Amino acid sequence: MKQENSYGIIPLRIDEAGWQVFLIQHQAGHWGFPKGHAVPGEKPRETASRELREETGLTVHRFLLLDPLREKYFFFAQEERVFKTVHYFLAWVEGSVVIQQDEIKAGQWLPLKEVYDHITFPEGKLVSVQVLECLKALDERGFPLLA
């Protein structure tokens, strides 16, 4: 069985209403977080940041956690079973959204509480629950959101 890794950012911003998350809709129709594969010599955070910028036009202002959240699943590619791990970095982002039309059909900022219902696949839904828990813990510790 083939193993594959990709890296992404869970793009966050905060306003007076609370946390918001940017989700993308892939050309195939499913909704999730921006992600992609590393190029040779690229480190995981570099890959995740590059993919975010390429797919959405957004840039990382600040990483919120040291360790990534992970999404794991199986799929088939050319009749071969692939075990994929996606490493997502939680990040406060900035900039204006510019969707990469080749790969991305649409994008949308959503309140954190609505993300679970909007994500297509169960593995992504589980990651959204982890995001909620992480942000709650950061808020309880008095994380300096606007520093």
Keywords:
alpha+beta, Nucleoside Triphosphate Pyrophosphohydrolase, 27% helix, 3 helices, 147 residues, single chain, 8-stranded mixed sheet
Description:
By secondary structure, this protein is an alpha+beta fold. Strands 1, 2, 3, 4, 5, 6, 7 and 8 form an eight-stranded mixed sheet that branches. Strand 1 and strand 2 (18-26) form a beta hairpin. The protein is globular, with a radius of gyration of 15 Å. The model has no long low-confidence stretch (mean pLDDT 92). It contains three helices and eight strands. It has one domain: Nucleoside Triphosphate Pyrophosphohydrolase (Alpha-Beta Complex). It starts with a strand and ends in a 7-residue tail after the last helix. Helix 2 (112-118) runs antiparallel to helix 3. 27% of the residues lie in helices and 44% in strands.
**How many helices?**
3
Low-confidence stretches: none
Q: Which structural class matches the secondary elements? A: alpha+beta
Instruction: Compute the number of structural domains.
Output: 1
Mean pLDDT across every amino acid position = 92
Radius of gyration: 15 Å
